[in-house]
Design goal:
Shape: elongated
Strand content: 35-45%
Mean pLDDT: 91
Number of helices: 1
Helix content: 10-25%
Strand order of the largest sheet: 3-2-1-4-5
Number of strands: 5
Order of helices and strands: EEEEEH
Radius of gyration: 13 Å
Distance between the termini: 17 Å
CATH class: Mainly Beta
Low-confidence stretches: none
Amino acid sequence: MCLGVPMQVQTISGDLAVCEIDGVQREASLMMLDGVAVGDFVLIHAGFAIEKLDEEDAQQTLALFRQVLADGGGPE
């Protein structure tokens, strides 16, 4: 199973972005996407931004992740 995590772009330097969510920062490659700007939400998987998301979709996905974690991490 693969998991992509929505994160917000904080800084961009060349093809690398520093992205953050809930105080966790990760560096990710932007080589697969065009038109990403600071403040955008992107889906991060294996160190790459693989999709640009609108903020509403990103927040809905993050809310689901948070709920799963609050419920103990998933199905038994």
